[in-house]
Every structure is written in structure tokens, then in C-alpha cells.
Amino acid sequence: MLANQKLFVHLNGGIRLPITVQGASKRVLSLSSSDMKATSQREDDGTPLSGQLSSVAGGIVALGKFDALHIGHRELAIQASKAGTPFLLSFTGMGEVLGWEPRAPVVAKCDRERVLSSWSACCGEVAPTELEIEFSKVRNLTPRQFVEKLSKELGVRGVVAGKNYRFGYRASGDASELSRLCEEYGIESYIINPVMDKKQTIKNREFSDAKERGQVSSTRVRYALSEGDMKYVSELLGRQHRLILTLNDGQTFTSDKSGISFPRSRLLNLPPKEGVYEDCRIVFGNRDVLACRVVVETNDIRLELVEMDRVYGPGDLRYLNIEFGA
Known about the structure:
Elements: E1 5-11, E2 15-21, E3 27-30, H1 49-56, E4 60-63, H2 71-83, E5 86-92, H3 94-98, H4 112-118, E6 129-134, H5 135-138, H6 143-153, E7 158-162, H7 175-184, E8 188-192, H8 218-227, H9 230-237, E9 242-246, E10 252-256, E11 259-263, E12 275-284, E13 287-296, E14 300-304, E15 310-311, E16 319-323
Parallel strand pairs: 4-5, 4-7, 5-6, 7-8
Antiparallel strand pairs: 1-2, 1-15, 2-3, 3-10, 9-16, 10-11, 11-14, 12-13, 12-16, 13-14
Helix pairs in contact: 6-7, 8-9
């Protein structure tokens, strides 16, 4: 094959990757952005903040840090849906403001809508809507000012929070104060018990979070991923962990007869620890595309048992979705 010749590699089941072959001894493949179209996964729907704020008026807002979108978060959304139209109130830029070390999210931003949509079956056939507010805009609010903002600026009808929820400047407010202030401002409040982790054999000393009491948490999800325990991850999430790679122009991946290796720089969210993971699959849309084995290495993510012997075109893929079996 001639160097720099463009072709489309067909991955068994329907995925087509636009590539350019750069040499014959070792196949190094690069993607062209002109060959890719947007999929239904979104990074930003472009809705102005004012539009988001007006949409939440009269709704029931679940409060928390919704990093992993785990079963505890889902329970908050379920309670919100029982009382009205459910929303999740998330804060952006918290890590930057508080000086936290940057880290990959558990759920890729472009995948959050899919996860929330999957909760609709538990939420009266209504998918919760995520509302994002810049953390820097609320960081210095007292508990009273925060509730006042929910009431007067957002116009929410009610809030849902866990028993261990803290809010306000330096987390000075607790769930009982939230209930008291909500009553004062005419907002319904629903305080629910946390969803407890069934795996209580893990000692709390494994976690640095002072609020750790054995409940399901994003911290526990991250711990399970760091241990490579995908069954435990699935139990905490209520679904299989989905790893998403972006297919950007100018980046390369290598291939051989048994599979493809992608650089970790392509990852949009947190992978499990280094190791070999069986019973995985590449997913496109709502259907299975290809059963595969995933090898997480120091610098690469390798997909094995992928057929690369048929040529089609043109391609239409921006993301590669990989689900890990339990």
C-alpha cells in the first residue's frame, strides 16, 4: 500500500474510522476531521445560562456533587421526580477555585446526557435535566444567601438533598439548616437517607473524605476504578462503566492484526487501573457493536479482537465508546 493513502477501516458491526496510512512497515493511523460528522453525543448544547435558569423555575432541584452519577445520585433524582420536574444542580469550576489537582471525570461530559436519560425509567419517564452554575458565583454565599438564590433567582419549588449534605461558605450549613431556610422561603425540602454501599468490608481509612460514612459516593467509584474492580464499579454506578475516547484530527493510533492502540491523551474520562479487561464491548448508539478485550497500559488503551480487514467509507464517528463488563 502506498504511504499516506487514505482509506476507511470498518470495525465489525458498523463503525468506520477514516484513516491515513503513513508507511508500510508499521501501521500508524491518523484521523481527518473533514471525514467526521457530529453524533448525538453532545459536549455543550449552547443553551444560554439565562435560558437554563428560567427552565428550572417551578422545578425540584437535587443538590450535590454529581461527578460519578452513581446510584446515590440517581436516588436524589428519583425523589425529585416524585415531587415535580427533576433537575440536578451542579457546580462548574470547583476544582480550579479550590486549587484541587486536575483529574479526569468519572463520566465524560459528552456522556452525561445519555446517563441521565437512562434514569427516566425510574423518574416517571422524565429524564432529569442538569443545571450548571459557576462555583465562583456562589462560593462566598452564606447558607441563607444560597437558599435565597434558589428561591428568588432560580424560582425553584423544592429541593432534595442527602442527610449529610453541606452547603454555604466553608460548608457551614447542614441538611437541617437547609430544611429550616427552605421553609422560611416557601420552598419544599426533601431530606433523604444516603444509599449505603453494600461492600462495607472496605475500611473508611481507604478514603480521605471526612464525610465518608459507608455511603455510595464518587470517591468510592474512583477507588473501585483504581483497583480495577469493574464488578464493584458497576454496582456503585448502577450501570457498566463507559470509557470514551475522542477521535481528533492530528492524533494517531497504531494497529496490528489483533487490534488497535490509542494514546491515553484521547481519553475523556477516567479509566480503570492498568490491566487486561475481558468481556468489554465497543458501543455505537444504543446497540452493541463489537465484543472486545481492553488492555489499559501506561501510555495507551489497547482494543483487541477488532477486525480491520474491510474497507468502507465515508466515516461518521467523533467518539469511541467502550463499556467494561462486570
